[in-house]
């Protein structure tokens, strides 16, 4: 059996780890927030307990006419039961003191006044006890049993501090246990509800991305009705779409290849037929003389069509290879190929600056120019329109663009061409046109980072080739 391959990266700090860490951190934080007040309360209770014993002792003493006459071991027992060195009872301006038989020397005395019960004082007192020097003597002051009476206890602080430390330790252990138990419980719940399904989604996406043509990798959505269920179903249908799109694209590519092959052979066959028809045209037979020109143009068109389709496949599939190119001569060459140079009726005016040089693919850009100029010539020839037919090429510069305008004073774009402008095979409104010229020109311009725009104007036709200024070759 092969181990299931994980598509997740090795150093993947997954959702589960983050979840556990966050839960523990939050619970500990909450525990700390509660710990401080609870420690202050613990200390206050502890002190009040002692004080209560002290009050009872003081009450007993108050009832005795002469404290000095009391047996020593009785007062000592009273004091030890309160855990104190000495007890002072004050009432009506008089005070009574009992202390241990062998008095203790008092070094540092800290006072805990239990008449002040506000929370801040209690918390500060707790911190004071916890972090101060452990050897201090504590003076606990509190209300006696009667309204105007006051009881003071002097006792070592150490047992209080020890009890507070024990309490803190217990709270700490308890907090950790609660945090761990909660984290585990929540983790198991979250794992079941979210982490597993999300992991399944993630792993499926990674796997599918690597082999989108494998239909087995399309996720099988569960029947969950929550957001994860929606994500699973959406992912499944997205993967379905990608899968079928890929398949379709491969089929189209295969078909395109087949068409190109057929087309290629067709063009060669047609070329042979063209040679024959040229021969036939030389015959003197008047019938042949009448039919031959039609045969020749029909064959010309068929060959032209085959040629353009072949070029469409070829031209648009290679990325441009830019070299510094003088645009004036590029336009001149294209005009020559478009049979505009030396045309008997149409004037061609090239107004591009001689020094304008751009980094473009000269072949491809030449093809753009040729297509536009050829269209202009064909339109002007077809229309017995303007008195002085002319085609003009000029260049404009803005901050970001260099625009080469190709315009003519012909009849303008026919509606059919306008509706399908730049759509391959659709845009032709001329007998024998393939409808590829503008589509090719646009694709090439865009491959250079530019745009080809049809500029609507009242007379004639104008196309703007906009190229980014970054293509400019600095002189
Ligand atoms: N300068 C223009 N004046 C008038 N019509 C034009 C002009 N340029 C293009 N057109 C119209 O736009 C249509 C589409 O042009 P496009 O170059 O894409 O295809 P085509 O010239 O018909 O065929 P191809 O160039 O592929 O042989 C043309 O058939 C023509 O009707
Ligand atoms: Mg054309």
How would a textbook summarize the main sheet? 5 strands, mixed
Helix content: 40-55%
pLDDT < 50 stretches: none
- Structural class designation: alpha+beta
H/I helix tally: 10
- What's the overall geometry? rod-shaped
- Using the CA coordinates, give the radius of gyration: 50 Å
Bound molecule kinds, no repeats: adenosine-5'-triphosphate, magnesium ion
Explain what this protein looks like in three dimensions.
The protein folds into 3 domains: 15-181, no CATH class; 246-311; 318-471, Histidine kinase-like ATPase, C-terminal domain (Heat Shock Protein 90, 2-Layer Sandwich). It starts with 14 loop residues before the first helix and ends in a 7-residue tail after the last strand. The chain has 10 helices and 12 strands. The protein is rod-shaped, with a radius of gyration of 50 Å. Helices cover 55% and strands 15% of the residues. It has 475 residues and is of the alpha+beta class. Bound molecules: adenosine-5'-triphosphate (ATP) and magnesium ion (MG). The site of magnesium ion (MG) has 5 residues, from helix 8.
Question: Which features would summarize this protein structure in a list?
Answer:
single chain, 475 residues, alpha+beta, Heat Shock Protein 90, five-stranded mixed sheet, 55% helix, binds adenosine-5'-triphosphate, binds magnesium ion
Please render the helix and strand layout as text.
Layout: H1 15-63, H2 72-82, E1 86-91, E2 94-99, E3 109-113, H3 119-131, E4 137-143, E5 150-156, H4 158-210, H5 227-281, H6 286-315, E6 323-326, H7 327-337, E7 347-350, E8 357-360, H8 362-382, E9 390-397, E10 401-408, H9 415-419, H10 437-447, E11 451-455, E12 461-468
Parallel strand pairs: 3-4, 7-9
Antiparallel strand pairs: 1-2, 1-5, 4-5, 6-8, 9-10, 10-12, 11-12
Helix pairs in contact: 1-2, 1-3, 1-4, 4-5, 5-6, 7-8, 8-10
The structure holds adenosine-5'-triphosphate and magnesium ion.
Magnesium ion binds next to helix 8.
């Amino acid at each position: 059996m092969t181990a299931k391959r994980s598509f997740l990266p090795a150093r993947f700090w997954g959702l589960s780890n983050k979840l556990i860490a966050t839960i523990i951190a939050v619970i500990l934080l909450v525990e700390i927030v509660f710990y401080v007040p609870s420690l202050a309360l613990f200390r206050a209770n502890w002190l009040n307990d002692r004080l209560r014993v002290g009050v009872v002792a003081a009450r007993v003493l108050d009832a005795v006419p002469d404290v000095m006459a009391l047996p020593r071991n009785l007062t000592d027992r009273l004091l030890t039961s309160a855990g104190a060195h000495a007890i002072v009872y004050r009432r009506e301006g008089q005070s009574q003191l009992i202390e241990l038989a062998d008095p203790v020397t008092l070094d540092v005395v800290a006072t805990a006044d239990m008449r002040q019960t506000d929370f801040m004082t209690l918390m500060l007192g707790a911190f004071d006890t916890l972090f101060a020097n452990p050897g201090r003597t504590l003076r606990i002051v509190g209300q006696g049993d009667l309204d105007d009476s006051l009881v003071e206890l002097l006792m070592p602080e150490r047992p209080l501090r020890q009890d507070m430390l024990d309490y803190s330790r217990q709270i700490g252990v308890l907090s950790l246990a609660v945090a761990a138990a909660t984290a585990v419980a929540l983790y198991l719940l979250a794992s079941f509800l979210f982490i597993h399904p999300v992991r399944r989604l993630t792993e499926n996406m990674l796997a599918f991305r690597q082999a989108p043509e494998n239909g087995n990798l399309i996720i099988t959505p569960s029947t969950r009705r929550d957001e994860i269920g929606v994500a699973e179903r959406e992912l499944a249908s997205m993967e379905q779409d990608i899968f079928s799109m890929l398949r379709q694209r491969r089929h189209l590519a295969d078909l395109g290849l087949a068409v190109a092959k057929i087309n290629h052979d067709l063009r060669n066959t047609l070329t042979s037929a063209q040679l024959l028809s040229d021969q036939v045209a030389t015959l003197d037979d008047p019938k042949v003389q009448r039919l031959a020109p039609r045969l020749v143009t029909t064959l010309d068109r068929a060959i032209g069509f085959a040629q353009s389709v072949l070029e469409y496949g070829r031209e648009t599939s290679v990325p441009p290879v830019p070299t510094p190119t003088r645009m004036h001569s590029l336009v001149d060459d294209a005009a020559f190929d478009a049979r505009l140079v030396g045309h008997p009726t149409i004037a061609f005016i090239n107004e591009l600056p001689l020094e304008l040089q751009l980094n473009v693919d000269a072949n491809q850009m030449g093809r753009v120019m040729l297509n536009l100029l050829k269209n202009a010539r064909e339109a002007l020839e077809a229309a017995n329109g303007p008195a002085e037919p002319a085609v003009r090429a000029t260049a404009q510069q803005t901050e970001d663009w260099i625009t080469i305008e190709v315009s003519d004073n012909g009849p303008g774009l026919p509606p059919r061409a306008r509706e399908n402008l730049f759509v391959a095979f659709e845009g032709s409104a001329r007998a024998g046109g393939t409808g590829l010229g503008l589509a090719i020109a646009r694709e090439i311009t865009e491959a250079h980072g530019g745009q080809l725009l049809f500029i609507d104007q009242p007379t004639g036709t104008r196309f703007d080739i906009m190229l980014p200024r970054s293509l400019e070759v600095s002189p």
